[in-house]
Amino acid sequence: MNDFQYKGSDLYCEDVSVKDIAKFIGTPFYLYSYNTLKNHFRVFNSAFEGIPHLVCFAIKANSNIAILKIFAGEGGGFDVVSGGELYRALAAGADPQKIVYAGVGKTKEEIRFAIKSNILMFNVESSQELFAIDEVADELGVKAWVSLRVNPDIDAKTHPYISTGLKSHKFGISMSEALEGYKLANSLGNIEVVGIHKHIGSQITQVRPFVDALEKIVALIDQLRVEGLNIRYLDIGGGLGITYKDESPPNPKELAAELSPILKGTNCTIIFEPGRVIVGNAGALVTKVLYTKQSEGKNFVIVDAGMNDLVRPSFYGSYHSILPVNKNSDSHKIVADVVGPICESGDFLAKDRVLPDLKKDAIAAVMSAGAYGFTMSSNYNSRPRVPEILVKGDEFFVIRKRENYEDLVKGEEIPAFLK
Ligand code: LLP
Questions:
Q1: Which domain range does residue 322 map to?
Q2: Do 249 and 379 sit in the same domain of this protein?
Q3: 274 CB less than 6 Å from ligand 1?
Q4: Model pTM greater than 0.85?
Q5: Considering only CA atoms, which of 393, 279, 398, 402 is closest in space to residue 12?
Q6: How large is the angle between the packed helices 65-73 and 83-91, nearest 10 degrees?
Q7: Does the beta carbon of 202 sit less than 6 angstroms from any atom of ligand 1?
Q8: Is the same domain home to 136 and 53?
């Protein structure tokens, strides 16, 4: 469920008409519903209420500090993968003891920042990283808590670019090397081994890969405990998919029904790192039709948002439904490509899509854009990044301003010899 619905012929986000926001803010912009964000977090969190757990929202999906603040207020923690994400979490008022830090390429500066911030733990992806953390922890005179990210070699059955749990992927330590990795970690003076981590991919729409991966990890936990390692946290990562078009992923309750019995048996505190399932359908990208044209019998709807604003269709061939903000009584449909202003043929938001016949100046909402939308946007073609708007009830708030041309060149300098 989400809070984007038609009232009469107008699309609303909660109790605000999207058209009215567009009039006030201009287009394009990202639009989020506070109520949907909060509800999605609550649904996920309560699905696992029977087991000791912590929901660490994956900041890479949506990093706006106002949105992070909503989850922090719900008792949530955060999964970060860079110093920048850690900075954002802290800026949103996160409890550092609810922050976990993953990623294959943490720098020593980032490790130092995380230790000084007193985060809960690092999810470590290689033995060299273990040495780096040990060194920094020694320098700061503390013991750093770590889990090892173990790659269970499971096919998540998702897009190859967002699948991470096969042994051919760069992530984690393989099952066969895990015990050795744990022994190494345990031997380092400034490391305390506290848990185990896995994450097999994103936009997963079946329960099976989660169960298969978990069973492998649980068997490993048993083996590690026999070796005397004190595994008390089990972080099962994120990855639960959402409906973009006609997918029918399990909802958090259904997933919990399958996983909880296994999770309970581990006697661990369970950490979850959901991203997309919380924010994906809580956001849309609102855009205006600049022009329409026909070329060789093909219809093009040219809008003011491009691949720099939402890269998923170009990058992964992802489907995002496109809704008119005002449903015209004319039910005439066309087949068209919805394209942006970027100078690349790969710049499209939809291909060969059956759409209402959107005319020049019509406004449309590209749905399910709350996850990996703004966070993957760029300034390509020197386009200022778009604002982010949060609706709560009958009010809306600018939670990130539209960039301007000065923002585009901020930090750039012309060296003296060119002056
Ligand atoms: N934990 C770790 C360690 C991750 O790498 C990720 C996502 C998550 C949690 C959250 O996964 P989620 O619940 O959102 O599926 N840009 C791609 C998705 C990349 C996902 C990367 N890792 C897309 O737009 O589909």
A1: 4-32+280-408
A2: no
A3: yes
A4: yes
A5: 393
A6: 60
A7: yes
A8: yes
